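This week, look over our next protein:
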Amino acid sequence: MTPAARVQAAIDILDQVVAAARGQGASADRLAAEWFRQRRFVGSKDRRAIRELVWAAIRACGEVPTTGRAALLRLASDDPSLAALFDGSTYGPAPIAAGEPVAEAGVMPRWLAEAMAASGLDAHEQAALLGRAPLDIRVNTIKTDRDTLASDLPVAAETTAAPHGLRLPLGTAAESWPAFADGLFEVQDTGSQLACAALGVMPGDSVVDLCAGAGGKTLALAAAMGNVGRLLACDIDRARLQRLAPRAERAGALAETRLLDPGREPEALADWQGQADAVLVDAPCSGTGTWRRNPEARWRLTPAAVQRYQAMQARVLDVAAGLVRPGGRIGFITCSLLDAEGADGLAAFLARHPGFRVDSVAAPLGRAHGGGWRLSPYHDGTDGFFFARIVRV
């Protein structure tokens, strides 16, 4: 493909991304993958160049652009060499017209920037949410240890602040390695590892992962327990929960699974009422702390959606409260940096449940915030998280 044809291809994909963002459609990753699947003649170098253009444009536009062309023109306005490729050549984009709409530059929509600022995140913190995320893995201590795995990997790996974390070079195809197939590690951000570890589960505990999804944190809990005790992974999404079993088998992790009916969770967990030593609530949220991985997500979010997440979090935390024994604890985790989905939710839970208190948390990265602990890309080089440990007195 010519350089100009690559630009037009990026515009075509961006048109789909913009439409999907407005209509809550498929993710940019899925849309790009489908576009390339239908055009198998596009070579690997072209694919890489097109993807780089698409994601650079997504990161450059604060508000949702009107079109994919307007998004690319935002990049071209600061890059004369890119602007020159709007040349009207075969398969290339039409020349730039005087007064043609150009997408507005910015980090995120204005209402989100204001909400972030109110949550204690300055301009540097906000900009870092759109950087490139590192590739972290968690060593599976059921099968190996960090030093042993690091010495056997085909690339050099750095240790992270998580006790069992390693950071690999960007672009590493780690999931294609035999070590992954053998269950020696899982891909997991260091921040996620630290948030999970804050629950402090131990061998012999009875533990519930209440929002297990596909089980990434469930596997971390199983490793921390050394497969000694009882571990129950729950979710309301059958398809996601079904992915846990093969992952657990590969990791050698022992965990039960239980599909829950939304709104009827206490009935389905009647045998666990007041019995759990620890309950992990990886709460549903907007995922603002993970924008480095899917930056177009900030175009999809609305104030009404944040309110819905608040309500869902309150519901799940209330369910968790019924499962915990006296002296037991709840780990509340959210991968959002909005206080509405973190510190505010924690305060509201404590107001509803006077029999619980916040236990102090200290992690090797991050800082205290809103009664819990915050990690951010700017300060800590991790995804953004708020987490807290809540104890039933």
User: Anything to note?
Assistant: The chain has a mean pLDDT of 96. Residues 3-106 form one domain. Residues 3-23 form the longest helix (21 residues).
